[in-house]
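pasting for ref. prot 1 ->
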Amino acid sequence: MTRTKALVESSLLVALAVVLFMASNTIPIVGIAFTFLCPAPLVVLGLRHSMKRAALGSIVATLIISIFLGVVGGMFFLFGFAILGVGLGALGRRRDNAVEIVLYGILVSLASKLLLMVIVSRLTGVNPFSLETGEFEAVLDKVMSIYSKTGLIPNESLEPMRQQFEATFRIIPQVFPALLSIAAAIDCLSSYIVSRLILVRLGRGVLPPLPPFGEWRFPRNIFWALLASALLPFLGGAGPWASTLSRVGINLRLLVSLLFMIQGMSVAWALLGRTRVSGKATRGLIIFVAVLVPILSYLLIIVGLVDIWWDLRTRLWR
C-alpha cells in the first residue's frame, strides 16, 4: 500500500469514527445502533496500518468531536469507544485466540468506562452512580398522566405499574456496576464482530473467528461465583460492611445469571440446529422470544446451570 493511499484510508477511517459517534448522539432511537459501531474504524486502522496511526487517529477524532459536542462529548468518545478500538487493534496484533482478545478487550472497555465515569463526575459534579429521585418522580408523574388521559391502561392498573417503575428505579443504582460491565461486554463483542466483517471484506489484517455460538461454554468456576453472590449479603450481618457486601452480592448474582442464560441460549441454539428449525434467523427469533418471556428466560438460566456441570450437548448427542 502506497503512503498516499494509506494516508487517505486512515483519514477516511477517522472520519467514519467521527460520523458514527455524531450520528449516535443526534439521531433518535436508531442512533443507538451506531454506538456499537464507533470503535470498529479504529480497530481496522490499527490492524491495517499501525498502532501509532490508530492512537493518533483517536486523538484527532476526539478533538473534532470536542469542537462539535464540547469537551464532555469528546471525553465520551475517547474513553467510551476510542480506547476500546485501539485496544482491540493492539490485542489483534499480539494474539491469535479470538476468545482471549474479546476477554481482554472487555477488561479494557470496562476500565475505560470506569475512568469515564470518574472524569464526568469531576467535570459536571454529577455522580453517574446515583440518580436524582426528584427528577425521576417528575418524569414518572408525566408518564402516568399520559396513560391516564389516553385510557390505554385501566386506572386500577396504573398504581401497580407506578410501584413497579419505582422499584426498578431504586434498584438501578445498586446494580449499576453490573450494568456497566454488561455494556462493556456488549461494546467489545459487537466491535469485534463488526471489525472482523470489515477486515474480511478488505482482505488484510483479519481477526480470528469466534467459536460458533452453539459451542460457547463458560468454566465451572462461575458456579462458585453464584454461591458467593448468595452468601455475601449474610456475611456482613449488621456490621459496617453489610451494605457493601449486599451490593456486591446483587451485582455478582446479576452477572452470573446472565452468563448462565447465555450458556442456556447456546445449548438451545445447538439443539434447534439439529431439528427442522435449523435456520439461523428462525433460531434467533425463537431464542429472542424466550429471553423476553420470564418463565422461558428462567428456564434458559437453569439449562445453562445444568450444562455447566453435565455438558448437555455431549450427553444428548451420544
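and prot 2 ->
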Amino acid sequence: MKATLGLLRTLRPKQWVKNVFVAAPLVFAQHLTETAYVWRTAAAVLAFCLLSGAVYAFNDVRDVESDRVHPRKKFRPIAAGELSERTALISAGVLAVIALGGCLLIHWQLAMFAAIYLAQNIAYSVKLKQIAFLDVCIIATGFLLRVLAGAAAIQVPASGWVLICTALLATFFGFGKRAHELAWAQKAGDSKSTRASLLGYSLPHLKIAMYVLGLLTCAAYVAYTFDEHTVRMFGSDRLVISSPFVALGILRFLSLALWRPKDDSPTEAMLRDPWFLLAVIGALAAILYAIYG
C-alpha cells in the first residue's frame, strides 16, 4: 500500500490538469456536443495524463540524488525511499506503452505527437532542463504538442490563432515559474538552487519578459476573437466577452509568481487560488456561451 501511494504521488496527478489543452480543438472546432468526438478527445487526454505521469517518474529517478538534499523535494517518494527506482522505471515504461498504444488505435498522427512529446520530455529530464531559456521553450512546445494532438485525435486542423495564444501563454507560465524560483530564493536569502538553468536567468529580465508576454497573450487572444474567420465560424464576435477573464487570470498569475512569491510553485498555487480559479471558470463559461450559446 505504501509503495502504491508513493507511485501515485510520483505520477503527480495534480499536474495532469495541464492536459486539458488537448481538449482545446474539440471546443473551438464546435464538436463539444458530438459524442464520438468527445470520447476520442477524452481518450487522448487520458493518454497524455499517463505520459505525463511516466515522465514525472522517470525524472524523479534521474534527480533522486539532488532531491535528497533539497528542502522540499527530499520528501518525494523515491528520494524518501518509499518507492524503489526499479518500480518507478517499470511503471513509467508500462504507462508509456499503454498511452502510445492507445493513441495509435485512435490515429497515427495522435501517436506521432504523443511520441514526440514523450521524447522531448525525456530529453528535457536528461539534459535540456539545465539550459536556460531552452528549458522554457521545451515546456512551451509541450503545450503546443498537446493542442496538435487534440486536433489529430478528432481530425480537424489546429487553429493558427489557438496555437499562437497557447505558445505565448505557455512561455509566460514557464518564465513565471523560473521568476518565482529566483524571487523566492532572493526573499529567503538562499543563493543556492538545485536547478542549474536558473544560473542563466536574471530576475529583472524575467519580469520584463513576463510583462511583455502577458500583454502579447491578451492582445493575441483579443485579435483572435475579432478575426474575420473566427467571427464567420462562430456567427458573431461575442467571443471577446471572455477576454477580461483571460486578462484577470494573467494578472493573478503575475501576482502569484512575482508580487507575492511563496514557497509553493505558482503553477501549483494557482490551482488553489480562488481568484485564478474564478478567472478560469469565467473564461470557460464565456467561451462556451460564445461558441455554443
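Residues 204 and 268 are 23 Å apart (CA to CA).
The mean pLDDT is 90.
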